[in-house]
Specification:
Blueprint (H helix, E strand, L loop, with lengths): L2 H14 L5 H24 L2 H29 L6 H25 L4 H8 L1 H16 L6
Helix pairs in contact: 2-3, 2-6, 3-4, 3-5
């Protein structure tokens, strides 16, 4: 399967899931590509336990990023249901993320560096997206 077909399938799936904004879909696709690229590299370099820790961190960052990508347009364009449900969902997601991280660090004794690398994929995604934005858009100087 070539990259054009993968991009179209991913776009269609995100549209089906209610993500209408093309820029947000682009961010999610970029995040997936960065996660997959780093996962392949990390598996080749570290293997085993480090890869599992990276995978947990990457999945946590992707799930949180995906949920925010679905919620933020509703907040910005005023399509949200209720403030209480949004705040409750935020704290519930924060609690679940904290519990998963606690279990991985304290109980499973995953390497913290690998967990952090997985979690930082969202930061790398935003940096790459911003660099792409700056390079592709023409800016006028004052």
């Amino acid at each position: 399967m070539n990259l054009v077909k993968i991009r179209k399938k991913t776009n269609d799936r995100l549209l089906q899931r209610g993500i209408r904004n093309p820029e947000i879909r682009s961010l999610i696709r970029l995040h997936l590509m960065i996660i997959l690229g780093l996962a392949a590299g990390w598996l080749g370099l570290a293997g085993g336990e480090h890869f599992a820790a990276f995978a947990v961190g990457a999945v946590l960052s992707f799930v949180n990023f995906y949920i925010l990508a679905r919620i933020i347009p509703h907040l910005v364009w005023g399509q949200s249901g209720g403030t209480f449900s949004l705040v409750f969902g935020f704290y519930l997601r924060l609690l679940l993320t904290g519990c998963v991280l606690f279990l991985c660090i304290a109980w499973l004794e995953f390497p913290v560096v690998s967990l952090l690398l997985g979690l930082s994929t969202v930061l790398l995604t935003i940096l790459v997206w911003f660099a792409k934005f700056v390079l592709t858009h023409k800016h006028k100087e004052a």
